[in-house]
Structure formats: C-alpha cells, structure tokens
Amino acid sequence: MQPWKKDRIEIGILGLGVVGSGTVDLLQKNCAEIEQKIGIPLHIKRIAVRDLEKPRAVKVDRALLTNNAYEVIDDPDIDIVCELIGGVDPAKEFVLRALHNGKQVVTANKEMIAKEGQPLMEAASHANLDFQFEGSVAGGIPIIQPMKNALAGNQIEEVMGIINGTTNYILTKMTREHADFDAVLAEAQAHGYAEVDPTNDIEGYDAQYKIAILSSIAFTSRINVNDVYVEGITHIAKADIAYAEELGYIIKLVGIGRRMEGNRVQVRVHPTLLPKSHPLASTHDVYNAVLVRGYSVGDVMFYGRGAGSGPTGSAVVGDIMDVCRNLRFGSTGRVSCTCFEHKTVVPMDDVCTRHYLRMDVQDKPGVLARIAYELGENAISIETVVQRATFGDQAEIVWITHEAPNANVRRAKERIAQLPVVISVANWLRVE
Ligand SMILES: NC(=O)c1ccc[n+]([C@@H]2O[C@H](COP(=O)([O-])OP(=O)(O)OC[C@H]3O[C@@H](n4cnc5c(N)ncnc54)[C@H](OP(=O)(O)O)[C@@H]3O)[C@@H](O)[C@H]2O)c1
Description:
Blueprint: E1 9-14, H1 18-29, H2 31-38, E2 42-48, E3 65-66, H3 70-73, E4 80-83, H4 91-100, E5 104-107, H5 110-126, E6 131-132, H6 144-148, E7 156-162, H7 165-177, H8 181-190, H9 199-202, H10 205-218, E8 229-230, H11 238-246, E9 249-260, E10 264-275, E11 287-294, E12 298-305, H12 309-328, E13 344-345, E14 352-362, H13 367-377, E15 382-389, E16 394-401, E17 404-405, H14 406-417, E18 422-431
C-alpha cells in the first residue's frame, strides 16, 4: 500500500445513539490532541441515523445527518466507516459493503462479531483492510488490542471476566441490600442501568457474545457462540447470596474461557461463587473486569467501565486512531484475524467444577445421610455442608462439593429431587 496522500482522513458514522454520540463527542472535544497524536486531521463527513428529527445527546451540524446509510458506505471520500447501529441486520450487510468499497471499518457490535465475525474478517483480510472492534467487549476497557498486540507472544491459558455491567449492578445491590432479584431489576430499569427488555443481559446472552469473542482471540480458534454454555442470573435468590457470603464467597456472573489438553477448550457463562479473595471478586456495581492468564506474563487484570457513551466512545476513538496511523503509513490489515486453529468446546456436562447446591428438606434424622449417599453414588465428594432449620418441620441444606463433572451433579440432582424427604433442590451453582 502507498503512504497516505490526502491532507485529512474522512470518517463516516452509522448510528448516533449511545455509542455514536460518545464517539462524536470525543472526536469533537479532543480533536486537537487526537490530530497531534495521529499526525493528520480527522473529519466527520457524514452520520447515518434512522430518524432525522430525533434530539441528539451531542451537538452536531444537522447537515451531516442522513437517513440513508448508503450515503455513508458508498461515499468515495470516506476512508473509515464506524458501524454503531448494533444487531446483525442490517449492520452486517452495511459492513460487508463498506469493506467491498475499500473502507476501513471500526465497530462496537458484539452480536455481529460473535455471530458473523468470520465472513467479515475474511473480507477485511483479503482486501488488506483494518477491521477493528475494541468497543465490542467490556466497553471502555482495552482488552482486544492488548490481547492481539502486547500479550500476543503468550499462549493464553485462561480468560475470565465480569463482562456485563447490568447483571453486576443487580448482583452487587442484592448482596449489599439483601434484596430480591425482581425488586433490584425494577430499580435498575428505573435508573437506566437495565433495558426495558433486559433479557439479553439477565439471561447472560450479552456476556455469551463477549466471552465467545475473547476466547476466539485467546485460543486462536473461532468459537461458535452456540457452543458457549450460558446461564443467566434470574434464579439467584437472596438466600444464595447470604449463604455464599457466610461461606466466604460472592456471587458474580462470570464468563470463563479455559484452555484444556488435547485441542479442547471450555467456554461458558454462568453465575459463579467466587472466593472473596479472587481478583475479580471486588468488581462491583456497573464495573467490568477481565483477568487474562498468559503462559509467560502470568495474571493480568483489566478493570473499568464496561458500557456507556463515554467509555465505549473512548474504545471506538482508540480504534479509529489506530486505523488512521495504519492508513498514514500504508499498513492497514496489519493485524488481521488470529483464528488459525480449530479447537473443540467441551460440552458443559464434561466440565469439572466445584458446585453449590441448596435444598429444602424435611427436618428429620437421616436426611443428610440420604442425600450424601446420592452424591457419593455419583462420585461427588463433599467439601462443606450447612444445615439450618427454616420453619415448621423444614430445613435448608447447602452443600459445597469438591470438583466433579457437571453431568454427575445433574444426575445426582435429579435423584435427590425425587427423594421423599426432599421438598426441592432450590438452586445449583458453580464454585471457582
Ligand atoms: N450502549 C453501550 O453502552 C454499548 C457498549 C458497548 C457496545 N455497544 C454496542 O454498540 C452498538 C450501538 O449501541 P448503542 O447503545 O449506541 O445503540 P443505540 O443507542 O440504540 O443507537 C443505535 C443507533 O443506530 C441508528 N440506526 C439504527 N438502524 C439504522 C439504520 N438502518 N440506518 C442508520 N442508522 C440506524 C439509530 O438511529 P436513531 O437514533 O435515529 O434511532 C441510533 O442512532 C451496538 O452494537 C451495541 O451492542 C453498546
């Protein structure tokens, strides 16, 4: 590629919502410093939105706005297209067309990357174009660029993170205020920390996209998002949080990618009891954190705001600046897709973890032994057990087990639920 000849770099933006506004705001407010750092002026040429009349969180010249995305994608003057619309349709088609038109692309779209990343990265790679997506995981926290650059020499053993701010906010509030899930969710919605339709967050799908992306980079193998085990936080009761606390743990929704022997990996998202001493355990409220364990570097921790206009805008602008430097020196497409191996995601049944089980039982002699027998029959050994009378002739028993395959616990749980002395197996969670 030839070094850059134009006197400025033209940017086109698709979407002026939460992230689009944060991006434009930062590009405008810090424009002098940004230009100094990249050595060339940047100019926003066009911004596509759906509704031209909608009030905007950022001051923009209305003449820049269009409700026709193709006026951005097909504009021959535009060098970088930022896709900040979200979802797969029509974002994927817009990005493919922008790449086809020879544009560099920056996006924050986790769903599109997790589900359709491969064809997009291949298209960028074939054309030696940059395709950057730092904002797609953990908002303002730099994690993708560090894994692809500064940590690239390491074989990554594990990537583990609290990567959804909404669920972390809910679990933090439940822990601090001994409150129920439904009450805290309603409050989070009232404060704008949770969407009107919170499904993507509370059922774990948002974290599922993100851990699929992080694991693909960590393990140099494309992780199919459908192979990632996902369990949300809707079944967490304040009783679970109280027992966890009493036993020295805190419950967090954690995404885990772990390298295993023989070209296999674990990739999963579920509520997890973390020991209070765990590096991720002190990540509270809407904050995110990602822990990366590299062969040579050891543990590296990234912490910050995982969403929002300013933080995600910061990640998008960082990507834009990186692309500008590549454009200036004729080196776009330098760091392309790193998925050159094929690794198999182990089914959750075969994953070995420690387990937490909470049960409502009849409060009478021999119950504990009867349940312990079923656990033993499934090769599950017990680490801790707590029994407490609740009301009438009922009691609650909480078990923490040693490591056992998930399949064994599932089988034992089914058997235990059928015992006449057991009223219900109220919850089953994993312990790190
Ligand atoms: N929000 C966050 O904190 C956050 C954090 C990390 C990553 N992300 C990702 O960033 C992306 C954007 O999220 P967001 O929260 O900024 O979404 P948003 O607030 O809903 O904004 C989406 C924008 O896209 C525009 N748009 C939708 N369809 C369009 C079309 N066909 N043509 C042109 N414009 C169109 C909308 O226009 P109108 O304004 O006219 O409706 C709106 O401005 C998503 O992929 C999301 O996953 C978001």
